[in-house]
Amino acid sequence: MSVNGTTDSLLPFSSDDLARLEAVREALLDPSPRRIGRLDQWGLADDYEIQAEIAEYSEHLITLADGTELDASLSIPKSLAPGRTCPAVVMPAPLSPLGHYSYLGMFPRWSRGGYAVLAYSQRGLAKSTGEIHCAGPQDVADATAVVDWLVAKDGIDAGRIGFFGASYGAGTSLLAAAQDRRIKAVAGASAWTDLLASLYENGTRHLKAFEALVKLFGEDRCSKEFRGVIQKIRANTIDDEVREFARVRSPRTYLDGYNEAATPLLLTTTWHETIFSVPAVIDFHQRLTAPKGLLIQVGDHGNAELPGLVGLPAKPTDMAYRWMDHHLGGTAGDGRPPRFDVRSEHMHDLFSDLRHATWADYALPKKRFHLADAPAGEVDGELVPDKPQAGWTRSVKATGKGTDIVVAPQLIQTGVAERLGMPHSYKTGDVDRGLAALFATAPLERASRVRGDLELRVTVKPQQADATIVAYLLDTDPATGWARIVTHAPYTFTAGQAGKATTVTFPLQPADYVVARGHRLQLVIDTHDPFFSYENITTPVFGIDITSPAGTESYLDVPLHPVD
What we know:
By secondary structure, the protein is an alpha+beta fold. The protein has two domains: about 15-360, Rossmann fold, CATH 3.40.50; about 365-560, Sandwich (Jelly Rolls), CATH 2.60.120. Strands 13, 14, 15, 16, 17, 18, 19, 20, 21, 22, 23, 24 and 25 form a 13-stranded mixed beta sheet that branches. A ten-stranded mixed beta sheet has the order 1-2-4-3-5-6-9-10-11-12, sandwiched between helices. A two-stranded antiparallel ribbon has the order 7-8. Helix 5 packs across helix 6. The model is unreliable at about 1-5 (pLDDT under 50).
């Protein structure tokens, strides 16, 4: 079966990646000189020649008790002496048309490390049959059945089973480990830990990401329960059924179980992740008492691990090899032990590599900037330290369109450009001040780092129910007028808050960003972003007043400190 085809995926495989994976699969199935020789163009021929010598690759349909067939690929070491066993790594597929073939580039490293490897597509994905349950209890039961199938093979050590997954496969891996204690270690790349927080932030649906996920799943392949939840989210009916659906599919629900079993968990995410909640991943990591590691990188969902999935160096997969070696006893990594800490890159610098023992050690103390009215003769408000600023009002119009400043012009692909050193830029001078309120610091006297958690308090009086504001923090160069997004967060007001001045305090996404000397931090408070609202909706124009009453003055807390 060919793996060529659509690139619609949360993992943005290029056409070269697809060609590489197709050639890899052909060489695994037929390790002839001609097939392996074709891999020379990617420098992979030696890897797969060794793979053919040391391991036996095969493809299977794993039949479950209800007749569902899971498409899978298996590699088992050839050199096991009678009575000897090896550790095994199971890899549930990401949400990709390629299914389990997304992982073929990792097989040689696992095989050289002495592992058996089983990759499979969850029910309803790729060529597996059955309905999609969105990492529900049925998928967890399937993972247990897959482990049963694997450990029944000769030579598999049932006491040394690990799970690795990317994206949807990361969630499946974490949830399976919560129920099956035979899973001794997990590495999840672009993982989620709280499904509701990923779909619904500060009363605001992440509609663009939600619809992208639904499109990739294919509604016709989803279970009746899942289809019902999809319709409720579209209708903005976040009721007990939706919350329960998300709860049972959230690893945070099973936190006590991970800690009780001391299951080692390695998690990776990205600063501008648009699919799953980064604060939820960080909070989950902080609450773990089991062995744990956290990696946060430049870019968006799936960007950082993608090279590793096709066999190239990448921090998430390299760390996963070391993680499994340490906990399962293989030798797929580079021989170094894993780090049980917080490891990060700062935005737009792939070569940065920061390490801290805990998130508390990593995050810098917050500095408070008060939102202030515009000085005489100026258009924009200010962000001033030290003194609260009361008594001003900035009025904007909600038209259903908003400004050109958005969370991400393109899901996933904007993050790919960031990893290539080309973050999206905005001209904040062109922003319609009738649609957004802007506030800026004075030019920074020293290059400074934003690292950690941010929080905004603001008083808002919306004239209509279900009004949304979106706060963006930008790094603006006064010399050019160009700005880059540091972080953001939305907030949606309830029907009962319409016409009332309501003070709200909410977190922005955590960040790690270096602001150059002479640049300004600029806060933009907008009323619309297609990431949170459907396109082409008809909305009556209404006003939103942004104010700062005495006693509840508006402020922005930023972990901003000079670079040493």
